[in-house]
What does this fold into?
Amino acid sequence: MRQGSVSGAARRQRDRRILIIALAVMCTAAVAWALTAGTSGIGAGLVLRVVASRVPVLSALLPPLPQHVEAWEVESAEVIVLDVRLPRVVLGLLVGAGLAAVGAAFQGLFRNPLADPYIIGSSSGAALGATIGILLAGAAGGAVAGTTARSASLAAPTWAVPVFAFAGSVVTMAFVYALATADGKLPTDTFLLAGVVVGAFVWAAVSFLMVIAGDDLPRVVMWLMGSLSAKGWSHVRITAPYVLLGVPALAAMGRDLNLIAVGEEPARFMGLEAERFKRCIIVLGSLVTAAVVASSGLIGFVGLAIPHIARMIVGPDHRVLVPVSAVGGAAFMVVADTLARTLVPPREIPVGIITAMAGAPFFFYLLRAGRGRR
Amino acid sequence: MEVEIQDVVFSYSAAGGDVLKGVSLQARSGRFLGIVGPNGSGKSTLLKVAGGVAVPRSGHVLYGGTDIARMRRRELARIVAAVGASESIVFPFTIEQVVLMGRAPYAGPLSGDSKQDLATARECMELTGVWHLADRRVTQLSSGEFQRVLLARALAQRPKVLLLDEPTAHLDVNFQLETMELAVSLAHDRGLTIIAVLHDLNLAGKHCDEVVMLADGRVAAAGAPEEVLTEDNLLEVYGVKTIIGKRPDADRPAVFVVSGVAAAATAAAACETVAAETADDGARAHEGSWCRHDD
It folds into this structure.
């Protein structure tokens, strides 16, 4: 029931401030844990020191190094924290934010809570691209095998697979887009169907390549499972521009996402150029997804469930839902990835397994709890 | 604001037939125009064309003399708002959030809901009697409540023209009356131009200032309710026999449906003739009566 003249919207704006603080704390805690957790036993103080030494203002304020810490310890900590853990954490933030924000936007756009960033065929295209990239790299490596290990690594640079995956994803989605367009319009149902059909075809091609992959098969399978393992700054550089531009842009279109989430015709009556807006969201979402998938492989569940969980907490207003999903997805991804590399050391579990195994039961619990409340 | 529809032809696809085959009509400020006609006669389509969400193949829609084809959607949404007949909302927005969506054509790209937006939304919710539901989820409403939420949202657009597609479809008699009286007062007291598709001919007869009757994508009759809702027109357009009386409470036409489809009545008459002619032949007479039942 309503209380006096205090409007629900005003109360929501108050709640929003609390929420932003909670999310910031959550994210910071996740990052701090991810940077300090690991098998090399670097103390939290040293990690903090290494990170702070690279921040312009903080580095000047650093106290002198304690006597008992040797210089080589600092150097190895610098390598581990700055070149191994930090890029991985940053990539995790980008991947989680990108997938969850695109998932929230697509669910609104398609008026379908089952939509996720992969629904329009981006995952299959990326998989095909990556598989081709891995096989080509393998072939090139095989051709120079017997010379030196150095030339083999030159033949397969780290950016090859991400670039192939990105290209595969974009080309596939462009094809789906062209296939579904008729009379200059893009009917949502046709678009979803085209995505599923093209996806099935492309997956068949991936399966065929896997059959003939030979020795490269494990690498293909590992890629398909999705992982942030052994990802460096070069991967961050591929993904960052798209996520850092794309996610705020999606969040800024929250009001129009609300309109289209209600229906295309009502949205038009409320002043939205629905066709243009649809294209805009699809192109933007596709590019962000492609950039994310290119560097991390197929990480499921985040893009589907994080927006759901966020919607249960903050409601369906996309002006709030998209940014909250993005931050929540980022934190969730970093936590999941840290679990992936610390649960059974020295082995790494592909993070896609963690996201599904940890996320699904929690999601299920929320579904049940939510039903009881309403 | 005056709405003028000039010789509009519309089809949903190039291959399909024309749904509107040259419709012209005028709706004036402060008047409540009802559109009636059988299923499939093009009523809802005409409403979409009038609101600019369906683009006619030929013909024009003018608002105050300006062709809406030359207006931007956002601009148009400050002039015309609509309550559709088939809207459903999947996500659990609150009622207040739904009504605030009507403020979209006035909002800046990144701005939140202003105090004025909140005040307008509240006023519109009070007007349609849903303010007490403001914090409820839209997915939990009865269809009658939902209809009134959509009306509040349309009013939040502060339109000069309001398009209603069967505004009373899911409402009980009490809310039917309230909704129609609200629509009439919006027209008469606030000067809105109201165009409403109505199925209930008696509601149209009682509340509308003018009525347009569509048949198969064309205007079959237009004018005051008593000029349009006539026994001849209803027989020709709907194929039903009716008696038009006068409402006891107002100088307005009342429609009483007498018998079903006129074509069937004719066929039944023919069967009777056959049966009479072959009265001696029992088998044929039996066939005749079968014929009548089937039609």
Summary: The two ends of chain A are 14 Å apart (CA to CA). The longest helix of chain A spans residues 71-109.
